Amino acid sequence: MEGVIGFVQAHRPYFELLQAVTIIVNLLVWLVALVLLLLAFRNRRIETLAVGPFSFRMRKEEAIVAAATASRAWQSPEAEKVDVPHIRATIERVFTPETIDNLTGKAILWVDDQPANNMLAMRALRKFGLDIEQTTSTTEAMAAVERRKFDLVISDMARPEDPHAGYGLLKLLRDRGSKVPFFIFSAFDRPEYRREAAKRGAQLSTNDIIELLDHVGSTLGGSP
Fold first, then answer.
1. How far apart are CA 201 and CA 180, in angstroms?
2. What backbone torsions phi and psi does residue 182 show, to the nearest 5 degrees?
3. 48: exposed, middle or buried (C-beta count within 10 Å: 0-12, 13-18, 19+)?
4. Which value, to the nearest 10 degrees, does the dihedral of the CA atoms of residues 137, 143, 144, 145 take?
5. Which stretches within the chain are classed as H helix?
6. Where are the domains of the chain?
7. CA 95, CA 59: separation in Å to the nearest integer?
8. In whole angstroms, what is the distance from residue 26 CA to residue 101 CA?
9. Around Cβ 16, how many Cβ atoms within 10 Å?
10. Superfamily covering domain 58-221
């Protein structure tokens, strides 16, 4: 035993160097792991990280921010502040395990002759894992429907060639036997508009982005 102690003491500088190298290697490993973790979050390869009592749900928080930004941009200048607690509650309902699993990968066709108006709302919807295709006319929309299956259609109402273009598209879809859920999302919202849309076979008519997000979640997230 004394020989071992003597050997260690005689070579103490080497053991101290080895210890320092070990510490440096461990730090480098942790640094690489942290970088890979951050990249995974950024690329959406992981959605939840639990560290002790903390839980980070990146997609959900990003969806809340996107929805609040879209709501703020869409509301009129006279409107009061954005109701963030209501937005958070809406997104929370979507981000339950069963609902988000049912939403992931489903396809939405969004028809609007001014697609830039919907970019913020679409950014929020894409956080739900949805695939969104845009078209700018009824003709393009019907061609898209012939080409692939959609789980939901969202349409504006008025376009330059037809002030009731949304109803026209809805009729074309229903006449061909399609039962795909159909939402009208336009700048105007009145009780009579909602009644007329429902009478024609639409599931929603609104100008409220948060109501739109809520109905997308409940309509597409209720079943696989």
1. 10
2. -130, 120
3. exposed
4. 110
5. 2-10, 12-42, 58-74, 84-94, 97-103, 119-126, 138-147, 165-175, 191-200, 209-221
6. 2-46, 58-221
7. 9
8. 38
9. 10
10. Response regulator (3.40.50.2300)
Query: Can you read off the two tokens belonging to residue 120?
Result: 């913020």
Residue 158 in tokens:
């008025």
Query: Closest by alpha carbon to 107, among 165, 43, 180?
Result: 180
In this structure, which amino acid lies at residue 26? N
Q: What digits encode the pLDDT tens for the residues 169-195?
A: 999 999 999 999 999 999 889 999 999
**CA-wise closest residue to 186 among 170, 199, 201, 204:** 204
pTM for the whole thing? 0.74
- Contact in structure between 94 and 217 (CB atoms under 8 Å): yes
pLDDT of residue 48 exceeding 70 = no
CA 184/CA 155 separation, integer angstroms: 5
At residue 51, φ and ψ (nearest 5 deg) are -130, 105
Cα distance between residue 191 and residue 184, in whole Å:
13
- DSSP secondary structure code for residue 48 in this structure: E
pLDDT band at 147 (very low <50, low <70, confident <90, very high): very high
